[in-house]
């Protein structure tokens, strides 16, 4: 659970909040009118979050790339009024 603090109070206690994050391992959420604005996390936490995001993006790219070419079901082109068809360069001729 993160420690929440209003933005007005965070301004006055910034140095203490930084110490809580860096040395205490806490996460601090700065709020305005009770709604979260920003979070203070350690540089190590940020690096871990970025690595997880990169890994998730790579997994999506890998999944999509492995699908290969797709063909439409018969009659779908006429059903949707498609007049053109994309062909890869090696299929043209």
């Amino acid at each position: 659970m993160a420690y929440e603090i209003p933005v007005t109070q965070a301004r006055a206690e910034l140095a203490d909040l930084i110490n809580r994050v860096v040395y205490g391992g806490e996460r601090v959420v700065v709020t305005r009118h009770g709604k979260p604005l920003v979070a203070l996390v350690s540089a190590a936490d940020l690096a871990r979050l970025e690595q997880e995001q990169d890994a998730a993006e790579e997994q999506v790219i890998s999944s999509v790339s492995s699908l290969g070419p797709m063909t439409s079901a018969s009659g779908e082109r006429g059903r949707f009024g498609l007049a053109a068809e994309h062909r890869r360069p090696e299929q043209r001729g």
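The beta strands are 3-6, 28-32, 35-40. The CA atoms of residues 22 and 42 lie 6 Å apart.
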